Fold this protein.
Amino acid sequence: MRVSTLTVFALCVGGSIALQNGLARTPPMGWLSWERFRCITDCATYPDSCISEQLYMAHADRMVADGWLAAGYNLVAVDDCWQLPQRNATTGQQQPDPTRFPSGMAALAKYVHARGLKFQIYSDVGTATCEGLPGSLGHFDIDAKTYASWGVDSVKLDGCNANVTDFRKLYTEFGRALARTGRPILYACSWPAYIDIGSTQLANFSEIAQVCNLWRAYDDVQDSSSSLYSIMRWWGGKAGTAMAKASGPGGWSDADMLIGGDFGLSFSEAQMQFGLWAVIASPLFLGNDLRRIDPQVAAMLQNPAVIAISQDSLGRQGTIVAALSNNDVQWWTRPLANGDLAVFAACISDDQGTFFFSNATLSALGWPHQSAHVFDTYAQKPLAMVTGVLSLTLAPNLSQLVRLHH
Ligand code: GAL
């Protein structure tokens, strides 16, 4: 790998036309069960990790007790496998498995609300969810009404078992069904995730932004740095620039769950994911076990200086400004509301032994001044005052997130 001064990619961010339902003015933050707990339904063998009301109640409790809510994580998200395999024969409604959700979904939403948190449910735009449970196709109105009656604040609508060419019509119709309930319900779509996989064609993100508050793009995150790096490479390509044009207050590109605190990432890699997700204004959905998280990782994921970048009111999705050494060193920037600039640099290669300096001219970063005060966001303290060039120390699997101010 060669270390060099970067050249700039085109950085042009247009205005966005997001869904204006008053929700998701900043990227949502919460905890989502899928990455860690998948579709475990055997509560006899795995009482602690099966998809059950106990799992969500325990996480709601931890979110309040351990500072997650205070840090901004305010959504508890149920994912696949909460349902029985059949709808209710009389009412036509989806129904929670009564052995795992004996109190029912309205009671679970109430439990979550009582702790100052919001509640998300999961369904699918097709005939069945990805795990084969009843999907919403043909039942949009009854499902939307059911969720509203349960007190749901957010719906993740997956895209399995449907024809992608029908997505425009189907996702739009479900969004209308949600709006008709009269309850403000955040609408998280998986629409582009199904278009991007295996295709060279990109989704029409500005069209999606008019329908959805969130759009999951690219492949599911898995518990490994190779998964993280493939997401970073994809976002560092033309898709990231296209998504940035569509994203803003009311509608955000979703890079999938944070896997810090799980098994696959080192501390530095988990920090890299968190830092970049803040810069690209992705929702911050924890995908870990909050009852068993390493305290150092928990503190890292609650870093207020990083969260301030994620939640910055200007609402710009950061973009890559340079990819060096075959995309193994990435530099990203995100303009912030007060005129500061968030700058993220990461080494996602393993063919570098130790620390090295990666350099960028301030002008290449789009910084309009000769010099800058540099604030180290991870360490939460001032780093340096620089003129002309910003030099950041990287190493394999290491990142830096700094904030430039004048
Ligand atoms: C996938 C989706 C995951 C998870 C899973 C559930 O398609 O991308 O986030 O929801 O389905 O079956």
Residues 167-180 form the longest helix (14 residues). The longest strand covers residues 118-124. The two ends are 32 Å apart (CA to CA).
